Amino acid sequence: MTVATQQPCDIKDAQLAPSGKKRILWADGDMPVLARIRQRFEQEKPLAGLRLSACLHVTAETANLARTLQAGGADLVLVASNPLSTQDDVAASLVHDFGISVFAIRGEDNDTYYKHIVAALEHEPHVTMDDGADLVSALIFVALERLDDVHTQVRAWAQKKARDERRRLIDQVVGSMEETTTGVNRLRAMERDGVLKFPVIAVNDAQTKHLFDNRYGTGQSTLDGIIRATNMLLAGRKVVVCGYGWCGKGVALRARGLGAQVIVTEVDPIRALEAAMDGLAVLPLAKAAPVGDLFITVTGNSGVIRREHFAKMHDGAIVCNSGHFDVEVDLKALETDGEQTANVRPNVDEYQLDDGRRIYVLGQGRLVNLAAAEGHPPSVMDMSFATQALTTEYCVKKKGKLEPRVHTVPAEVEEFVARHKLTSMGISIDKLTPEQKRYMSGWEQGT
Amino acid sequence: MTVATQQPCDIKDAQLAPSGKKRILWADGDMPVLARIRQRFEQEKPLAGLRLSACLHVTAETANLARTLQAGGADLVLVASNPLSTQDDVAASLVHDFGISVFAIRGEDNDTYYKHIVAALEHEPHVTMDDGADLVSALIFVALERLDDVHTQVRAWAQKKARDERRRLIDQVVGSMEETTTGVNRLRAMERDGVLKFPVIAVNDAQTKHLFDNRYGTGQSTLDGIIRATNMLLAGRKVVVCGYGWCGKGVALRARGLGAQVIVTEVDPIRALEAAMDGLAVLPLAKAAPVGDLFITVTGNSGVIRREHFAKMHDGAIVCNSGHFDVEVDLKALETDGEQTANVRPNVDEYQLDDGRRIYVLGQGRLVNLAAAEGHPPSVMDMSFATQALTTEYCVKKKGKLEPRVHTVPAEVEEFVARHKLTSMGISIDKLTPEQKRYMSGWEQGT
Amino acid sequence: MTVATQQPCDIKDAQLAPSGKKRILWADGDMPVLARIRQRFEQEKPLAGLRLSACLHVTAETANLARTLQAGGADLVLVASNPLSTQDDVAASLVHDFGISVFAIRGEDNDTYYKHIVAALEHEPHVTMDDGADLVSALIFVALERLDDVHTQVRAWAQKKARDERRRLIDQVVGSMEETTTGVNRLRAMERDGVLKFPVIAVNDAQTKHLFDNRYGTGQSTLDGIIRATNMLLAGRKVVVCGYGWCGKGVALRARGLGAQVIVTEVDPIRALEAAMDGLAVLPLAKAAPVGDLFITVTGNSGVIRREHFAKMHDGAIVCNSGHFDVEVDLKALETDGEQTANVRPNVDEYQLDDGRRIYVLGQGRLVNLAAAEGHPPSVMDMSFATQALTTEYCVKKKGKLEPRVHTVPAEVEEFVARHKLTSMGISIDKLTPEQKRYMSGWEQGT
Amino acid sequence: MTVATQQPCDIKDAQLAPSGKKRILWADGDMPVLARIRQRFEQEKPLAGLRLSACLHVTAETANLARTLQAGGADLVLVASNPLSTQDDVAASLVHDFGISVFAIRGEDNDTYYKHIVAALEHEPHVTMDDGADLVSALIFVALERLDDVHTQVRAWAQKKARDERRRLIDQVVGSMEETTTGVNRLRAMERDGVLKFPVIAVNDAQTKHLFDNRYGTGQSTLDGIIRATNMLLAGRKVVVCGYGWCGKGVALRARGLGAQVIVTEVDPIRALEAAMDGLAVLPLAKAAPVGDLFITVTGNSGVIRREHFAKMHDGAIVCNSGHFDVEVDLKALETDGEQTANVRPNVDEYQLDDGRRIYVLGQGRLVNLAAAEGHPPSVMDMSFATQALTTEYCVKKKGKLEPRVHTVPAEVEEFVARHKLTSMGISIDKLTPEQKRYMSGWEQGT
Question: How far apart (Å, rounded) are the C-alpha atoms in residues D293 and D379?
């Protein structure tokens, strides 16, 4: 059931709002840095007059970011960045309790997904936020007249616009924020291809973001998703983690922390060495396939677990993904070599191969932490979203002064977020003495 | 809604059966040792003619034990061992898909709980199974004419019986199995008090049980319950674990494995030393109270977290229990010094103290792994319940030959369970050579 | 050089005394429980008039035990329990600074080793202490006229005695203390064989001993010995730990704590399961042999690493032992299939096999923590030796009242040691409330 | 005793050469990447005609680097980079077995230290190597006529040179390699000050260096040094690690891996947050001082542990440093407030404060891993020194083309080192498929 309210929206069920509100407020209690920014935004209104389109996972944590941007004066449209990551009750509460336009329905098909992207475009944003760069991509395709490259929903909408209306879509963009590794990779590719016509802040690359959110957030929530989906004991299992970037490190750390025997696969020799020296087994996936009980992809790449690997897995092997897009596990190969026989538990699909072996896929190969659990805990999103809010303010202040390329998060934003997070955790730290500052800036003193 | 079927039962909703069946069969896939025993039982029927009353957590894993006992020929009644641990869909499936009598409804009040105990008594069991010794206690109270000590439901039922009928309740008991530490403690106290009139097997004390179920099972599932209830990030939190027995060790290990800073409280100096040498902080609870973010009791004792501790906790502290009974956290103290203000999430109740501080209690102070998650994973219950099934068979075979006291699990049962579990995990191990056997049994050879 | 002093002794070099004294006093600073006992012993002299022969590793920690026994009034002879574990400077200081009879020279041959055992026998002890049961074995062989079974040195000495003098050797023994798992195994075998004619206290089996000394002591010191011998980086190495008892658990824990990828071999299925659920690889040794970089035996058995395993190891594999006797690694097989080619570093011998592969053996296959490092740290020996001192006092007090069998350490000794160790670490713990004591001793209260 | 040989040298004792040679060859067995480079260098002689002065820790690992540079054709002088880190037997072997000029004596005073620096300058190097930038600093001071800033030994030597001879010292430098964080910090300060007149490669900043050497190398060897010095049990100790950079992370990881309860102090909020989320306690040093049992500085800064901290430590606290320079622990404060009372063990000095408390300082506050143990294990130095060798070759090839500033290590060097290290460990990894390469370089494909 889709409901209509005062502000435009497309959500599952307005009646879910009370449950969503509880969830949002509970999360808010664990997001003190963002709350502090929201309080200042309410008074200073630094985003007044700003149209902002955000394409993010619609969760309780994102809701608190949305509330903060709204408090700063932004006119906000929020759409889903993934068909399977929306919390419908949160979406309902955002619309009904907080008056924010939301277009997001859990389990929406691709058509609906892109209809929602259109809603974000239609808003003609000054600032965009992405988690995976789908919104910015659509914007650029449309504005640069590459209408063959966009989804039909977007094309249909774009064709109704005049050429300069389409062009205006990017001309009026003051800046864009990108939340995840995959999105930053895409944006750097855009920069290389010369199509990036406005400044983008790589929020993902902030230390206060990727060192924490990607590692501790993805680490815990991925295992959480797996356990909720399967109720499997991790102790004693052979868990194959594909990719040993920040997310992969977090996933491996937590899998080991739960008693699993972790095997890492990598394509980068330095990361592979790190994994080995962290005491983990490192194997090519072809050799890991027959021994693994559980496989988790976190590479940011496509086609990681393929037909040749499924062919070697033992009966009952469990496969899931915690990378941004659902391209890491090649489900088509499974469908070709066998068939989907049952949904044996919520978020657990059984595929039976021609030789009788069964492979279980969690959350349809989408981000398992969002499909089968609640995504990253608020405490860690506090840091990522505080950075989002502050870099948005930074873009607005620097309007017209930032070059059209991928920028890093300003050091003072990182410093602010880290210091206030520490304070909220009741932790105080040392300060450099004047002598130490002098020592660190000099070079004359040696042995 | 309570349904009626052919066999006597009291469950929530028969229509939940399909979901419960999925869950049972999924768990079965991870319980290979029990499945192997079930296959043999089907052929040999070692429990034929036996009435068996089991008072256990009614979960998917227990369902597979019930199926195994049934396969062995037992006439089985299953009742809940905790008001908040029943999986209603599993109960429904047991009744409707497997034809087993179940009396268990999640969230049942104490009256209903004891009505269900009465159903177990009414069955006049030859063998009983307990998880906490509630069924055996009731049996003994009734048979020994201590009707003042039993719940009114039990008393009312007992009073309808003749004295020798009551006495027969224990006279015909061949043996009893006890699953948990708390229950074994109670049974040893009964033995000391001279009221234990039939043999009891301390299944909990089997190495194949407590080294695994209590440690890895409770460890993972407790943290799982906490995360499902709160979605809190464990990394960086100060987690106070009260009790460093096998369960406490497991909980501390997993909390640390998820990045928490663990503080242990103990009353036993040897366990306290172990915790310290495991690199954990050890404090009296009075000193841990003001610093902890999350408190978990796993002591098997009562009144562990009390008024004086709540008085020192910081605003927002979270409290839960993973010990057998809901007596470890003194909720009455919270209610006296403040009031329950809200249910902020499923399984999260907020108590506001008079000074404004808020304390959050998970799962009403009952076993958080069963209240807020699915209890121990099947893989570990496989071992515990394989032991249950085999010791039941052992009791029957030894009928009349076991003294009326608490017995340990026979070594050959432990050996069987451990060996087949290893096999199911694809692990093979070394064998002693004849020379080594000789060396180990001799003493003559020295330096 | 062997020196003569007032009291009988056989040590390496008296001039090493100053270095040994430093070492003894430094260790003493980390043995507060033993120091406390020593102070009381000095006043109460509970061992006055007692002849005591101790066959222990002659290290700084043992020196402080010897000082404590001496303070208690005992007339003490200390001999080595292992040819390669004596710290010659400590031996020298014990003789010259503390006036204690010591017979122990690092690297002594078997003849000298047993000459020293003779010195311990010659002392005609009322109480003995063993670390491996060599002294007790010799005593029993001699007293029971099994002179064919003893070393020639012992036989020669025994033959000079009259029969009843030999018999008196055991008749006057009040009690004996045994420090290590291997020794307790031998003593239980003696008990089964009916040759144990006096009471023995299994100090090793005390919780305050084996949970700490065997696990944390052996764990750290074994890795310490390996690193001192080889300077190898543990991170990223495949370390095969043979045996997952308390010592093996400690070694595996520390190897993993240093970044190694640990593989466990076992013969006991329950221990093998524990290792697997602790997240370690478990393999039969035949499969671990080709992949291991470092092999450590801690089984208490003989012939663990054999010809068939050496045959599969890769060139450069390193092998060592941390079990009590030097029988776990079959050096003869290495010598038969190849030859000892070089001592490449102190405590590292190279064996070249016929096919050119090189195997490195540390500390001649003797306890690597004592051969290549300093043995267990004083902090943990504090607990073991406090228990030794108190059980010695206990034996004396119970003179004539203890049956001639293997006894466990009294609970009050364990309690004393644990409580005072905690205090010395600045740790205080909770006490049971009266309500809790009542709850724990009752059984009536249930759900 | 200082010996004279054909090539100029200043070493402790030529007769130590045999022991040193053993050590060098043993280390060589664990440095396969460097060995591979050495083989190529022997054939290609890429460093022919090059004078090279290296100021490094004179250890077995460095000896294998020196052999490699020599094999490449370099005319090499090696001097100590720290008064307490030289292995005298290695120095002797380098001179006598390998014909390399070495100026380094363990325990040399500052005058001798700088006489050795003069020997390195006198060599008029084309390429320099530093571990802490002492050689480059001296070079620049002299060449830029800042003779007031240099040690008297250097000044005396410089004053004998003509001005253009002094200037030539930097004019003929093709490039310089820097091995450690502290040195890179100094070089960046030089670059800021405009005094860096030749290109420097920050070898320390290579991923194949700092991710491994600083973390796993410093981690293990620091704890190794502490244990050798003290024989203390780490389990249960409160270990304060000052600094959570790569070295600090490694030290904290290993301390925890040995069972310690780790407390981190930091000045950087992001690193402090990382430590907290890694489950460690984070405190200002003033609060950590009274609780710590062992303090380890790894900050790269000066004056970290100061009078105010000593004032709060408990009796018996142990203090050491694993940062590059001996300025992190303020020994003068200890001497002012108390006195050095004894050397209680090798590398352990006791300081008694006026109030009677004793503080123990390890290795005189110099790098404890080199003062009390053997420094980083060869396996990890293999990577660092392979990078040194290859960047030296790179500098020579790029002669005249690199700007006079701090450069990073070329990616192909990192790739080579990582790939061959993996190979030597028997690890193979995955390769990107053509589809994956395409996916990673594109941006068009989204949801």
Answer: 31
Question: Quick one: how far is CA B260 from the chain centroid?
Answer: 26
Are C379 and D316 in contact (CB < 8 Å)? no
Cβ contact, residue pair D301, A440, below 8 Å = yes
- Out of B256, B262, B279, whose CB is closest to D235? B279
How far apart (Å, rounded) are the C-alpha atoms in residues C315 and C318?
Answer: 9
A258, A348, A373 member nearest B220 (Cβ): A258
Name residues whose C-beta falls within 8 Å of residue D52's C-beta, 6 or more positions apart in sequence. D69, D74, D75, D76, D77, D123, D125, D126, D127, D128, D129, D392
Neighbouring subunits of A (3+ Cβ pairs under 8 A): B, C, D
3-state secondary structure chain A: CCCCCCCCCECCCHHHHHHHHHHHHHHHCCCHHHHHHHHHHHHHCCCCCCEEEEEECCCHHHHHHHHHHHHCCCEEEEEECCCCCCCHHHHHHHHHCCCCEEECCCCCCHHHHHHHHHHHHHCCCCEEEECCCHHHHHHHHHHCCCHHHCCHHHHHHHHCCCHHHHHHHHHCCCEEEECCHHHHHHHHHHHHHCCCCCCEEEHHHCHHHHHHHHHHHHHHHHHHHHHHHHCCCCCCCEEEEECCCHHHHHHHHHHHHCCCEEEEECCCHHHHHHHHHCCCEECCHHHHCCCCCEEEECCCCCCCECHHHHCCCCCCEEEEECCCCCCCECHHHHHHHEEEEEEEECCEEEEEECCCCEEEEEHHHCEHHHHCCCCCCHHHHHHHHHHHHHHHHHHHHCCCCCCCCEECCCHHHHHHHHHHHHHHCCCCCCCCCHHHHHHHHCCCCCC
SS3 of D233, please? coil
Give the H or E element holding residue D55.
Answer: strand D51-56
Q: Assess contact for D216 and A277: CB atoms under 8 A.
A: yes
| pLDDT tens column, D294-325 | 999 999 999 999 999 999 999 999 999 999 99
Residue A320, beta-bridge partner list: A296
Q: Which of the residues B232, B238, B261 would you substitute to probe the D interface, choosing the one with the greatest number of D C-beta atoms within 10 Å?
A: B261
Angle at D335 between CA D332 and CA D337, to 5 degrees: 105
CB of D84 closer than 8 Å to CB of D364: yes
Q: Identify the segments of chain A with pLDDT beneath 50.
A: 1-4
B212–C contact, CB cutoff 8 A:
yes
Chain A environment of B234 (Cβ under 8 Å):
220
pLDDT digits (tens, 9 = 90+) for B132-154: 999 999 999 999 999 999 999 99
**CA–CA dist B446, A321 (Å, integer):** 57
Q: Does C211 touch chain D (CB under 8 A)?
A: no
pLDDT band at D173 (very low <50, low <70, confident <90, very high): very high
For C258, the closest of D220, D344, D348 (CB atoms) is: D220
Residue-by-residue pLDDT tens, chain C, 447 positions = 344 456 789 999 999 999 999 999 999 999 999 999 999 999 999 999 999 999 999 999 999 999 999 999 999 999 999 999 999 999 999 999 999 999 999 999 999 999 999 999 999 999 999 999 999 999 999 999 999 999 999 999 999 999 999 999 999 999 999 999 999 999 999 999 999 999 999 999 999 999 999 999 999 999 999 999 999 999 999 999 999 999 999 999 999 999 999 999 999 999 999 999 999 999 999 999 999 999 999 999 999 999 999 999 999 999 999 999 999 999 999 999 989 888 899 999 999 999 999 999 999 999 999 999 999 999 999 999 999 999 999 999 999 999 999 999 999 999 999 999 999 999 999 999 999 999 998 888 888
